[in-house]
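Forwarding these from the shared drive since the link keeps breaking.
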Amino acid sequence: MSRRRPLPVSPRRRSIRILTEGTKTEPDYTKHWYRQSRTGISASIEGVGADPRTLVDRGIEELRTSKNEERRGRGRAYSSVWVMFDHDEHPDVADQVVRAQQAGLRVAFSNPCVELWFLLHF
C-alpha cells in the first residue's frame, strides 16, 4: 500500500469587484494601483458611469448575485464589492455611503473628486 502525499492547499485568492462612478478616470486610477500590488488579489474593475444611488443599487445586486452563484456551486463569491464615487453635486451622498455600508459594500469616497487623489499620490 503506497502512501500518497496530500496535495498542497493554496490559499483562496481574494477577488474584489470595483464599480466606479466615472467611466475613464476612476477605472484608470484603480487599474494603475491594482497593477502595482496585485499579489494574491484578483480584481474586476468597471466604470459604470452612474450617480451614487444607482452605483450602490448595482453594487448590492452584484454582491447578492455573487453570493447566490457561489451557493449554487457556480464559482466563488467576491471577497468584497466596492463602490467608488465623488461628492460632486450629488444631494444624497451621505445617505448612499451609509446604505452601501449597511448592505455590506465597501466604499471609496472622494471629496471633492478623485483627481485630488492623483495630486496626493504623485
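-- next protein --
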Amino acid sequence: PAFMGTDPIGWIARAEKFFEVQEIPSFHKLQYAFMSMEGAATHWFYIWSQNNPDSDWESFSTALIKKIQRSLW
C-alpha cells in the first residue's frame, strides 16, 4: 500500500499483511516500503535509511511511528 505520511500504524499493518500474503523475504521489506512512499515520506525514508544502513523492517517501522508521533511531515 502507498504511504502518504498519515496513519503509520494502519499502513504498517497493511504492509505486514502484504508481506505475509506475498511471502516477501525480510531483506526485501525495506525496498518495498521505499517504493510505496509518497511525497515527504519518500524524503524522510531516504535520509533515515542513509543514517541507518544496517536497519531492518522492525527498526524502520518503530522509527516511522516515532516520527509521526513527534510531528507531521
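The mean pLDDT is 90. The helical segments are 8-22, 29-36, 40-51, 57-70.

- D.
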